[in-house]
Amino acid sequence: MDQYPDLGLRIYSKALTPDGSDKTLLERAAQVESQFSVDVLRKGNVALADMAAQEWLTTGSDKHDNLTLLFRVESMRADPSFVRPLISIKLKTGGQLTGGPGEGKYVASSLTPREAIALWDAIVSSIRVRPNAVRSASSSDQSV
How many domains is the chain partitioned into structurally? Predict the structure, then answer.
């Protein structure tokens, strides 16, 4: 995506392992907000793949005053399972390029906040746990 060299998207999922942090995304975000200059575009409870989740969408600037955007969403689950995996999505634009011909260069976000939110909403709303990907224990094969 040569047109958007600063765009980074990470999607992470794990099923049975307990969540790594005792704090929710918004609890961790509150610590960041108290220590750094970020403007919150949107935050709160949302649905992700039909699970409870929290999202945090922010804008800020890098050390060269370039506009940066950082969006995160994480599912929350009391009982990890294959049908209730932890899903964590991060979208970042602007700041220091980490690859390609401009690696190391600082750039402003190639997306406006409005464009990034539209992209974000399209991505997050499309995430689903694949139907019938996991068979329940009661439906195991019983050959005669």
Answer: 1
